[in-house]
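Review form for a predicted model. The reviewer records the input and the model, then writes brief findings.
Reviewer: anonymous (R2)
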Amino acid sequence: MPAPPPLPDLDWEFELRALVLAHAIQEAGSISAAARRLGVSQPNVSQQLRRVESALGVALVARAGRGIRLTEAGALLASRARVVHAELADAFASLADLAGGVTGHVRVAAFPSASSALVPAILAHMRERHPRIDVSFIEEEPPEALRMLADGLVDLAVTFSYDEDPGDPHRASVRGFRDRVLFTEPVYAALPEGHPAAAGDGAPLAELADEDWIAGCPRCRGHLLEVCRAAGYVPRIRRETDNVIAVLGMVRAGLGVGLLPALAVAGIGIPAGVELRPTSPASPRTVHAVTGPDAERVPAVAAALAAIGAVVGEQRLGLSPG
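Model under review:
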């Protein structure tokens, strides 16, 4: 096997600049918006981008219609930026503990499917790293969690969005807040064992037009309606529940099919008689951490954000950072 090519002779400042640049472009969606986020001019960002691409020998962005998108290399760099940021934040939080210990109270709201896997890992991390911080938790769907954040009843809201749905309200809902993308997860079709749509690696949504459907929360129901509309039909929704165990039980009994995000089934044993397949076309869900614009100035909130980043970065849930 030939030896891998030598890595470019880079320095820490350059490497961090490349990570920050890729992350800013991914979050902002354009070079001009990334420049505003970074507080520099658009030509400055364009010049930095050219230097980074030249040094690495790969393109980080590509044209997409009237805008740009990250290439595979750019997306990889942006995902690593989140991991590095989480590690640095965690390191600084640990240093603060050594210097006297972070104390305080942080209030977290998160949606139900995050409560079974993501939230316990975050709380365990906080108890281990920051035992002097009191963390309270309440389970709420994203609209109510964001209302509580706006009213000052919680400090941090874990929410989700379906970014490919034209009508998804997330972007409008988080105006005025600080929105951080944690990860993007696949959405699975939950099918009875032996269903024809489960024969391949993905479940074609177009083949489920004649099925009875089980719908979840209002936003999940909206996503179901959108993906089925894109597949050419209106789903026949016969049952509605946001209880994942109930959905799996109904599917097993042949009472319908449903859509379940990966987080909803993380750590749950899938019963015999049920098969999960990624939807085809894919219909991913994005998970966010939302705070007030200056929340990171509060040490307890900053520690909680670092804990979330560490949990996602370590892939404790079997999910890759977005």
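Findings: Residues 102-182+285-313 form a domain with the D-Maltodextrin-Binding Protein; domain 2 fold (CATH 3.40.190.10).
Further findings: The chain has three domains: 1-100, 102-182+285-313, 187-280.
Recommendation: see findings above.
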